[in-house]
Amino acid sequence: MSRKPLLLLTFLVLFAGCHQNTSTASKPPSAAKTFTIRGRVLSTDATHVTLDGEKVPGFMEAMTMDYKLADPSVVNELHAGDRITAKVLADKEGDSYGNVRLEDIVVIAQARPDYKPPVSYHVPTAGDVVPDFKLLNQSARTIHLDQFKGKVVLMTFIYTRCQLADFCPRMSHNFSDIDKALAADPALYRQTHLISVSFDPTYDTPKVLRSYGGAYTGNYTNEKFLHWDFAAPTEKELPAMTQFFNVGVTPGDNKSLTHSLSTVLIGKDGKIVDWYPTNEWKPEDILVAIKKSAA
């Protein structure tokens, strides 16, 4: 399929004037900060774009990050390798930013016809057999994913130093809510297990993971971690695990990591039931899926 002519115009905003008018155009909330970003598109899904972005003064260092699209209808006009400029809207939440999204996207250069992303990521799909990855948990014990066969496993990816409220902190708060809800149903609790996987094994040692995990369970130093593991793969095994679960991770200049999101529900047979690649899922919806899988 040929690319539309608008992609060749360096100054044309995607769909400007076609999908919005002055009364309906999205406007940043009063607490939102607006920045301008330039970068290269690495991948897209229905509502997000992963961008290898240049430094944004006053906001972030050059990094790869998954951005929500303020207008998801533009996604069909974006292709891996395209260079774009866009406005970044971010809501100030204490010492961090949340609800980060892109709008007013302008394609300034088309992708090369032969462009290929540097890493090929697997898209988790229902029915996929999950490899038996091994991880070191908060108790300095090696765990294998296969050891949880016979239980429904909910797994997400985080790193403990993440400062974006809508990313790792939201995943951990959601898991905390789910863990408490499952604990209220002893039979279901016994049939399930939660795992938060860090993709920062150098910093996220068992001691760090234990402190982080205890804070999110609410039991702190008294936590036994019988139902929810916080663990990290080895540096050697990390690439295979992040690629299988579609987690893009790029080091930043300030010891931060930019990354995409990935939460996966694994059935008792060790196969993927569902994959949640954004932060928009709700704990109550996941609980319904867990109960269905455990039945």
From TrEMBL:
<dbReference type="InterPro" id="IPR021647">
    <property type="entry name" value="CusF_Ec"/>
</dbReference>
<feature type="binding site">
    <location>
        <position position="259"/>
    </location>
    <ligand>
        <name>Cu cation</name>
    </ligand>
</feature>
<keyword id="KW-0732">Signal</keyword>
<feature type="binding site">
    <location>
        <position position="168"/>
    </location>
    <ligand>
        <name>Cu cation</name>
    </ligand>
</feature>
<dbReference type="GO" id="GO:0046872">
    <property type="term" value="F:metal ion binding"/>
</dbReference>
<dbReference type="Pfam" id="PF11604">
    <property type="entry name" value="CusF_Ec"/>
</dbReference>
<dbReference type="InterPro" id="IPR042230">
    <property type="entry name" value="CusF_sf"/>
</dbReference>
<comment type="similarity">
    <text>Belongs to the SCO1/2 family.</text>
</comment>
<keyword id="KW-1015">Disulfide bond</keyword>
<dbReference type="InterPro" id="IPR003782">
    <property type="entry name" value="SCO1/SenC"/>
</dbReference>
<dbReference type="Pfam" id="PF02630">
    <property type="entry name" value="SCO1-SenC"/>
</dbReference>
<dbReference type="InterPro" id="IPR013766">
    <property type="entry name" value="Thioredoxin_domain"/>
</dbReference>
<dbReference type="InterPro" id="IPR036249">
    <property type="entry name" value="Thioredoxin-like_sf"/>
</dbReference>
<feature type="domain" description="Thioredoxin">
    <location>
        <begin position="124"/>
        <end position="295"/>
    </location>
</feature>
<keyword id="KW-0186">Copper</keyword>
<feature type="binding site">
    <location>
        <position position="162"/>
    </location>
    <ligand>
        <name>Cu cation</name>
    </ligand>
</feature>
<feature type="disulfide bond" description="Redox-active">
    <location>
        <begin position="162"/>
        <end position="168"/>
    </location>
</feature>
<protein>
    <submittedName>
        <fullName>Protein SCO1/2</fullName>
    </submittedName>
</protein>
<feature type="signal peptide">
    <location>
        <begin position="1"/>
        <end position="16"/>
    </location>
</feature>
<keyword id="KW-0479">Metal-binding</keyword>
